[in-house]
Predict the structure.
Amino acid sequence: MATIGHNNLNAKLVLLGDMGAGKSSLVLRFVKGQFLEFQESTIGAAFFSQTLAANDVTVKFEIWDTAGQERYHSLAPMYYRGAAAAIIVYDISNTDSFGRAKKWVQELQKQGNPNMVMALAGNKADLEDRRKVTAEEARVYAEENGLFFMETSAKTALNVNDIFHEIAKKLPRAQPAQNPAGMVLVDRPPEGSRATSCCS
Amino acid sequence: MYGTQSRRDVAYEYQAQIPILRPSIHARRANITVKFQDLYGFTVEGNVDDVNVLNEVREKVREQGRVWWALEASKGANWYLQTHVSSTLKSSLKFSALVNAITLKRLIRKGIPPALRPKVWFSLSGAAKKKSTVPESYYNDLSKAVEGMVTPATKQIDHDLPRTFPGHPWLDTPEGHAALRRVLVGYSFRDSDVGYCQGLNYVAALLLLVMKTEEDAFWMLAVLLENVLVNDCYTTNLSGCHVEQRVFKDLLPKKCPRHCFFEKCRIYAHLEDLEFDVSLVATEWFLCVFSKSLPSETTMRVWDVLFYEGAKVLFHVALAIFKMKEDELLMTHHVGDVINVLQRTTHHLFDPDELLTVAFDKVGSMTTTTISKQRKKQEPAVMAELDQRLRRLNSVNGDDK
Ligand SMILES: Nc1nc2c(ncn2[C@@H]2O[C@H](COP(=O)(O)OP(=O)(O)OP(=O)(O)O)[C@@H](O)[C@H]2O)c(=O)[nH]1
Ligand SMILES: [Mg+2]
């Protein structure tokens, strides 16, 4: 697929899901290759960026890792507005978190960017003995709703890079109109000409 | 309970355990990152300069301690309690009280020594007064009454205990978890509208570290939520927090009017151009009262002023962070860059005076009354927005049925 200018793509990605589902852990695994047994709870949201090469393009993800507690819901639109991709995370050992994930999907379908690439992540796949949500159930749901689905484990790193990679491959490449999907094809100004980007 | 047998201050206890770090020239040249413990026992990462700054801060804290003790000696212990002139100003104004009030305000902006913090915060914030209106046994009775009860709030609290400043030498111990749990669970029953809101775990944890007894930490949390901060900051849809964010957005262009070099672009417009919404970072600042962003002693210095002067202090500090980095922010051309600048700045503010000087001298004065007016102005818009969102959301969920 054609890309304009440099083969660089900036994509805003948001992680949504119940508190404790493992959003921050997935990001930490993807960005730093680490896992913490006790990951601090996120307040508001945390920002990360990570670059990855997919086929012909280098995708720079700008990742918003949001807070999962129900009352933080009212902040979420600020983070998913204009996002090119979303990972909706639930915890396979927690049925409620799967229910919560479905609500996020509905909300994004209604209010998110229509071209958004959506992934459903059944996290904590390492906790097989405590599983409450079957992979089959989630797969069927994902198919019905046009998402792609993977079970992941931030702890063992299972499918973590893969889910981001898959998203990178699915992102629409060239954007004909200006920036409709929250993506910017960057043509970074050379270092010498910084500070000219504003007010243009 | 924490440190009940000892009147010494936590900060000093940690200090005694940590040898003063004297970085070698070699390390300095290499500009390596080192891990060290700060005044409240948190492990932080920084470079050699940060270590030096922190050592200077320790020295300043000791100096400030000497000033406060000297004042206690000359004016009498609890002299700072005789400063409440504002409400009874007209008739019974005593000159000495006024002098004390002016001295106190200036002194507090320079920092309360960690050893005096529990006492000074407790009386000046209004926590002591709040506690005095209920029976002496209130906190113990409450703790006993709610022991073993399970609610959605207690479940979330339990979930967050090990996730609150993990790795801290006291907070992350069974004893620390138990104390934090009792404070948060107790509060969730005291105010069921708030229940438990994530963010309060960090706030309560720091209050425990400072106040040293659970009961005092509990009352500080109560006074903070009920009297100091904006109403409904932590209730179901965080409406108070939304209000604060709007007030902040309004203040930023007024208080940071610097133009960018090439064009007539102010920082606020520049950030808007980048589609950077200040709430992206400021939400966490306000909800955690900076406890997750600033180094601990710097946070405590902000709280020193907060408990004496009120919630307007949060705006001073938030504005100061932007103001300190105005030039750098004007050079950014991406949201990510903006966030990185702000994060790097807050995490490295080991010198509280660097921040507070800008917050109070450069940001310019604001009164609690102006802030209240601003809040009133923003409230209807916030309510309408939240309401609209809720209705849209309900229609989303309804559709599926
Ligand atoms: N066994 C296992 N534990 C995990 C995994 N991912 C996360 N956890 C643990 O689950 C807890 C919550 O993880 P977080 O990444 O903080 O969850 P979150 O979704 O970011 O939570 P909030 O920030 O509160 O919304 C942490 O203690 C993690 O160590 C996983 O794949 N396997
Ligand atoms: Mg998180």
